[in-house]
Amino acid sequence: MINRVIAKIHPRLAVVVHDLTMVWLAWTAITSIRWSFESVRPELGLFGPEVCLVLASQGLIFWITGLYKGLWRFASLPDLWNILRAATLGALAITVTLFLYNRLATVPRTVLLLYTPTLAVLLGIPRLAYRYWKDNRLDFLSRSPAMRVLVLGAGRAGDTLVRGLVRESRYRLVGMLDDNPQIRGARIHGVPVLGTLEQLPDLARETAAQMLLIAMPSATSVQMQRVVAFCEQTGLPFRTMPRLADVVAGRSSFGELKEVAIEDLLGREQVQLDWTSIRTGISGKRVLVTGGGGSIGSELCRQVARLGAASLTILELSEYNLYRIEQELRREFPELLLDARIGDCGDAVGCERVFSLARPQVVFHAAAYKHVPLLQEQLREAFRNNVLGTHVVAEAADRHAVECFVLISTDKAVNPSSIMGACKRAAEIYCQNFASQSGTRFITVRFGNVLDSAGSVVPLFRKQIRAGGPVTVTHPEITRYFMTIPEAA
């Protein structure tokens, strides 16, 4: 306990001692120099009553202005301004205190005038020197030199990235590139803007860069494709800041660096959804999501929670997936009425109990097997889960007067050429026919290849590319259409 207290007090105490020492040094030095020009000098002493009053007055001002809340490690212009403010207010407080003490009998006016700038310099230089040392020291533990980095993009994101990286001893920023001609040759936090993105291959060689960092979170897919093409010409590893949409949605933090994702390079802009209309259909409703632990189902759960559902019930066969999405939702949406249930959509008794307890108004049926090659050899399981499971859930929705039933299907149900596609098509036909005799509104939505979803071909392609190829496709003329998980959900 005592050690923890000392650990917390010690750094602050050292700063207090340092600052009061600088106050003593500034006051005694200026006073001594000023009186050295006079033939008759008063006996002031190094720690007389006058000096003690100066220390007390200035120390009180330091505390009032919050000078000790700032960390030397991150000293910047706002900290220097606070130092100047504290020194100025301190000079005024000292003037009042000594006037009440002895009518300023032994304090020349030049001492009061010189005190503020002298103290500001004595307090500011050590802070800036400490930050400079921390920002530029090598990592002595690893004994490895800093990695030379080029930053692509000198806008606000580039400014934020550079500001963070200059404090990292692992990186040495050798320059920035940007297509804006107005900032060419400028410096951002001491890092020069060397040229345009088209000059990247040449400038990467000239600066001996070892890594490229893309700071363009709002770039379109076409712009990202262009930037990535330049990066690939250099043969250097590159990372990117997350997209603004991912930051807002909480999927990434702004300062996080990641590999360029496939969705960053989509040959089209992401679909902008009509959230107002979607919110109208979800807000205040009791919602059930089957397969809520899967890639599509879990994103559906997140969107339902964000849209203000009255309650959310998740039916999921995988214990781990259910636990994972339940913990995430309880952490991100503590006010949401959430019920997580382990169950199989093919279990009619289990589904009936879930519907009786949840009394859903909206059902998203996302539970399904999606792996095309696996299901080619598993006809019975594909039919049981994708067709009979849909039959069980749809009938339960009808019995409990659900307002809306949404079947999550696939584009492989169009002229199906696989077991999975045929089963999903059969489920669609069943829902279409059942809708004519039910009070429930049945909706079917078809997805294309959803990036990084369970069953998506994208992870396989990524693995094959990393291994040096070849990339396997089912036909030389095949065309695949991709969408992101948020678009799908």
Please outline the helices and strands:
Layout: H1 2-35, H2 49-65, H3 77-102, H4 109-136, E1 147-152, H5 156-165, E2 171-177, E3 187-188, E4 191-195, H6 200-206, E5 211-214, H7 221-234, E6 238-240, H8 244-249, H9 275-282, E7 286-290, H10 295-306, E8 311-316, H11 319-332, E9 337-342, H12 348-358, E10 362-365, H13 372-376, H14 379-399, E11 404-410, H15 419-435, E12 441-447, E13 449-450, H16 458-466, E14 482-483, H17 485-488
Parallel strand pairs: 1-2, 1-5, 2-4, 5-6, 7-8, 7-10, 8-9, 10-11, 11-12, 13-14
Antiparallel strand pairs: 3-4
Provide an overview of this structure:
The chain is of the alpha/beta class and 489 residues long. It folds into three domains: 135 residues, no CATH class; 119 residues, NAD(P)-binding Rossmann-like Domain (Rossmann fold); 214 residues, Rossmann fold, CATH 3.40.50. The strands form three sheets. It has a six-stranded mixed sheet with strand order 3-4-2-1-5-6, sandwiched between helices. About 1% of the residues have low confidence.
Characteristic terms for this protein:
alpha/beta; Rossmann fold; six-stranded parallel beta sheet; 489 residues; 3 domains; 50% helix; 17 helices
CATH topology of the largest domain: Rossmann fold
> Could you name the CATH homologous superfamily of the largest domain?
NAD(P)-binding Rossmann-like Domain
Shape: elongated
Question: Percent range for helical residues?
Answer: 40-55%
CATH architectural label of the largest domain = 3-Layer(aba) Sandwich
CATH C-level name of the largest domain: Alpha Beta
Structural class: alpha/beta
